[in-house]
Amino acid sequence: MDMLTGIATLEEKYIELCKKHGTVPNTSILSAFFEAEDKKSRNQRCVMSLLIDRVMYDDFHPLLELCNEINSSEVEGIDLSVRSSCSLEDQYVLSLIRSVNQKLGRVDVHDCFGTSFWRDVFSQGLSCQILNVRSLHFRKLNIVGEFAQLHTLVLDSNRVTGFGEGCFSCMPNLTCLSMCDTVVSDLWTASSALLKLPSLEDLRFQDWICCSESSSSTPLKPQSSDENMFDESKNSSTEADFSGVFQQMDPEEDDLDSLYAEVFMGEKVRKGKMLDQTNDVGLKYISTRASPICSKKHYRIYMINSLPKLKVLDNLAIRKSDRDRATETYSENFEHLPYMRKNKESVVRVLEKRETRSSRWKSRSSYTRSLCAARMGSSAWPLLHSIPFGRFQDESRSLSPRQFEYHPLDPSLMVYGTLDGEVVVLNHESGKILRYIPSHGAQSSILGLCWLKTYPSMVIAGSANGSLKLYDIQKASSTLNTTTHTTSGSVTFDEFDQLTSVHVNSTDKLFLASGYSKDVALYDIGSGTRLQVFANMHQEHINVVKFSNHSPSVFATSSFDKDVKLWDLRQEPSQPCYTASSTKGNVMVCFSPDDRYLLTSAVDNEVRQLLTVDGRLHLNFDIVPTGSSMNYTRSYYMNGNDYIISGSCDESMVRVCCAQTGRRLRDVSLEGNGSEFSMMFVQSLRGDPFREFNMSVLATYTRPSSVSEIVKVNLLAPRDHIEEQSCGVHCYPSSSMGG
């Protein structure tokens, strides 16, 4: 066996290499030799710690050749750190890291490198055993390279919001992962990504710390060494001290039971909020460095149930009783698969059962539901696809949508109104614009749109300035040339000042308009006249008015006076049939497709389903509020009466809930591709009336230079089936208006 090169010999070799390259030995590298020799003399592991940010360009070539020599030396490991601005370019640092190869222990890096550096690291992998990365500015994390030796990954204090579908797919030995103080918020994609880690035992999205009444804050009592998840056997390759990161809480048993009870009962403890205990010691617990995912309702329950091999979550050990409780609570609050299907089935298996006419298929709907469950179960990352209608043919003008509606009969058509008062009909499958109607007079946003069902070429459009028009799209222009536009085929109605909503009844004879007033106006479509104005129907302005889907005289109103009211034109609407109240102002209301229910959406995620017949509460969807009084929430039905979708203008998430049980099926996170630092928010949304588990979302960005866009969401198609497209969007303050 070849003799390993000693440390003293290695140091001499380094000095010779410096002479060879005509440079002076770097003092920090010489210090690393001294420290390694000192550790060896005290029978400690012989590890060299190199600070790359102290390495200059003149030091690079001697150090690179030295790293190749280290692999055949008695040095047991190399730790590399970059903690401040580094004078070396990205490719030089990457060459140094890779040259250490199998003896690479810990890599501790702040984000002082460019995007290409991290893409190379995350796509090609590293041979290190511990990787600590801070201040990373990637929004979506997609680590797909080989990290075969990695057992600890620390990604605290980064701007990561979510995970790519292939993330963590090549980390077979990762046992400890910390992502405290990130921006991760989606339970579904996070748990799906983490399931790719077969050895994961210790996971952190926040830290629980305990403090006593006599002191404001003290570290948690660590476990004994044989119980510590990050013990000496797993840390044998390096002397890096991550015990502060992976320190497990070990309170007394009675105190632990009290804490667990609070954590599981609605997870009342949030970031910065303390929980008093009832034991004599007077202990308190506080969550620190919490990522947004920790504020999700039943976060701990969801993670424990989704990650069966996990032993520690947020430095709190997972006991058998916790798993039992999590299983029970999960089944009460979540749908694992659509239509309460228990187990995943492959699409092929479902198709085989249909072909063999399995007795299970008693109806076509049963087959459709099983097929939907199989397709949705195949991926947690649904397909998001922006409609590419930003430009029309050869025109240079952009069209920024403000409201949209699916066509009631043609699955390929959609109409949208723009911020400049234009009405556009497009094929939303191809993105091709078919008809264009310019604004008339002063430009004003289109806030109300409604198709006629018995006359499917007719659409009513209402603008914020009060303009109300009925258009025949067959007579509209097929180009953006406004000089050739004619008003033939349009009907103008009396204005409704500061309009926010219009809706046509089930027979296409009447429509209603509401706006920034307490009144509602009734119009006759056939004669083009306003029949009546119902005054003072609410105490504050009426944001949305909706006719029922089957009763031509029944309609509902939602107002910021916190009330939703049901009315009947057959009775003089001086008194509502009933009034149902919310705790906050109501943004909108809509009927279920069969008219059995009213879906109400009040400010900041107060979403409820009422019985249409008498207004009694049927379901409270119990979506966690943000605390913002400007977080305007909108909700609609999807898949007929089966599911509801809900989104809010201060959040980038769409929630999908079962309309029969209230259980959460999925959250869909909107992700923009335009900028790493821009986020998308929900301004409006609609379920696709022709496609199961499909919807469209009117989204806005935080980037002020962007225009809004309509994002199509297909929950049944994996995201890798099509390349995502994205346009820019603009965030406008009028997000409380209309539906």
Describe the structure.
Residues 214-235 are annotated as: Disordered. This is Protein DWD HYPERSENSITIVE TO UV-B 1 isoform X2. Residues 214-225 have a biased composition (Low complexity). Keywords: Repeat, WD repeat. InterPro entries: DHU1, DHU1_N, LRR_dom_sf, U2A'_phosphoprotein32A_C, WD40/YVTN_repeat-like_dom_sf, WD40_repeat_dom_sf, WD40_rpt. With 739 residues, the protein is an alpha+beta fold. The chain has a domain at 6-204: Leucine-rich repeat, LRR (right-handed beta-alpha superhelix) (Alpha-Beta Horseshoe). Helices cover 17% and strands 30% of the residues. The chain contains eleven helices and 42 strands. It has a nine-stranded mixed beta sheet. A hairpin with a 5-residue loop joins strand 32 and strand 33 (597-602). Helix 8 (299-306) crosses helix 9 and helix 10 (347-355) packs antiparallel against helix 11. The longest helix is centred in the N-terminal third of the chain and has 15 residues, at 27-41. The chain is elongated and about 100 Å long. It starts with 6 loop residues before the first helix and ends in a 21-residue tail after the last strand. The model is unreliable at 213-241, 264-282, 390-394, 673-677 and 721-734 (pLDDT under 50).
Describe the secondary-structure layout.
Layout: H1 7-20, H2 27-41, E1 47-51, H3 57-70, E2 77-82, H4 90-100, E3 104-110, H5 115-124, E4 130-134, E5 140-141, E6 152-154, E7 162-163, E8 176-178, H6 187-194, E9 202-204, E10 207-211, H7 253-264, E11 274-276, E12 284-288, H8 299-306, E13 312-313, E14 316-317, H9 320-333, H10 347-355, H11 364-376, E15 382-386, E16 401-406, E17 413-418, E18 423-427, E19 432-437, E20 446-451, E21 458-463, E22 468-472, E23 490-493, E24 499-504, E25 510-515, E26 520-524, E27 529-534, E28 542-547, E29 554-559, E30 563-568, E31 578-581, E32 586-591, E33 597-602, E34 606-611, E35 617-620, E36 633-638, E37 643-648, E38 653-658, E39 664-669, E40 680-687, E41 694-701, E42 709-718
Helix pairs in contact: 1-2, 1-3, 3-4, 8-9, 10-11
